[in-house]
Amino acid sequence: MLAAGWAAGSGLVSSQGTTNSASGTSLGAPAQGASDTSGASSTSSTSSSSTGTAAKSSPATPPKAAAAASGKFKGSAVRTRYGSFQVQITVAAGKITDISMLQSGSQDGTSQQITGYALPLLIQAVLQQQKANVGYVSGASYTTQGFEGAVQSAMQAAGLA
């Protein structure tokens, strides 16, 4: 499982140890052996095991390119230990352009504090990488799991996953 942590308030730390601030850098590729359900790591593993044939690395691209969906798509609510998470994504020409939180976990003070710092980072990462599985925020594991599940559900509704 891809893990990232909060690095002294500066952003997410990927499993490879790179720090990414909220200013717009992505989380990076998953570590070797990490499971990545989005298929984004298939290109790197395919190219290292083959001689770089285009036929093997191209299957990861067509589903996103072929999807020309546009509109707003609501995913199912994903229940976690600390509340439910549900999103609505806005898609234009097959790309996610906005994510709105319909449900964002428990409403107690601690949960609101955690989601207050974790959700903006996760939303930004999804918008940049165009996939649901973008990494974890340390101290916000349940928030991350709920958010990623909700985004995955909305992407499936839009035909992007």
Number of strands: 7
Mean pLDDT: 72
In the CATH hierarchy, the architecture is Alpha-Beta Complex
Low-pLDDT segments, ≥5 res: 1-67
How many domains would you count in the coordinates?
1
> Secondary-structure element sequence?
EEEHHHEEEEHH
C-alpha end-to-end distance: 19 Å
Principal-axes shape call: globular
What is the level 1 CATH name?
Alpha Beta
- Fill in the CATH topology: Sufe protein. Chain: A
Q: Into which percentage range does the β-strand content fall?
A: 15-25%
Number of helices: 5
Write up what this structure looks like.
- This protein is 35% helix and 20% strand.
- The chain has 161 residues and is an alpha+beta fold.
- It has a single domain, classed as Sufe protein. Chain: A, CATH 3.90.1010.
- The strands form 2 sheets. Strands 4, 5, 6 and 7 form a 4-stranded antiparallel sheet that branches. It has a 3-stranded antiparallel sheet with strand order 1-2-3, with no helix packed on it.
- Strand 6 and strand 7 form a beta hairpin.
- Helix 4 crosses helix 5.
- It is globular.
- The N terminus is likely disordered.
How would you sum up this structure in a few lines?
The chain is of the alpha+beta class.
Name some characteristics of this structure.
35% helix; alpha+beta; 4-stranded antiparallel β-sheet; 3-stranded antiparallel β-sheet; Sufe protein. Chain: A; 7 strands; disordered N terminus; 5 helices; globular; 161 residues
SSE blueprint:
Elements: E1 5-6, E2 12-13, E3 19-20, H1 42-49, H2 54-57, H3 62-66, E4 71-74, E5 78-80, E6 83-92, E7 95-104, H4 109-129, H5 141-158
Antiparallel strand pairs: 1-2, 2-3, 4-6, 5-6, 6-7
Helix pairs in contact: 4-5
